[in-house]
């Protein structure tokens, strides 16, 4: 789980910094990163929940 979120964050950060390289404001970039992160977070959590449920169902099916 930790590895997945870490690679996700590492993947998002370069994209965000590239998109903001024209602005040149570091605090603005950090602020945008945080606000976009809070928009992405619920999506990531729901995705993890779905994956978790699917795995649980799969293991239950294997046992049966």
Can you walk through the features of this model?
The protein has helices spanning 2-20, 26-63. The chain has 64 residues and is mainly alpha-helical. Helices cover 89% and strands 0% of the residues. The mean pLDDT is 72. It has one domain. The chain crosses the membrane at residues 37-54. Keywords: Membrane, Transmembrane, Transmembrane helix.
How are helices and strands ordered from N to C? HH
| Weakly predicted, low-confidence segments | none
**Cα radius of gyration in angstroms:** 17 Å
Categorize the overall geometry. elongated
The CA-CA distance between the termini, in Å, is 27 Å
* Number of helices, where a helix is a run of at least 4 consecutive DSSP H or I residues: 2
Instruction: Please outline the major beta sheet.
Output: none
**β content, as a range?**
under 5%
Classify the helix fraction into a percent range: over 70%
- Number of structurally distinct domains: 1
Count of DSSP strands: 0
Helix/strand-derived class? Answer: mainly alpha
Average pLDDT confidence is: 72
Transmembrane segments: 37-54
Keywords: Membrane, Transmembrane, Transmembrane helix
Provide a compact summary of the structure.
The chain has 64 residues and is mainly alpha-helical. The protein has helices spanning 2-20, 26-63.
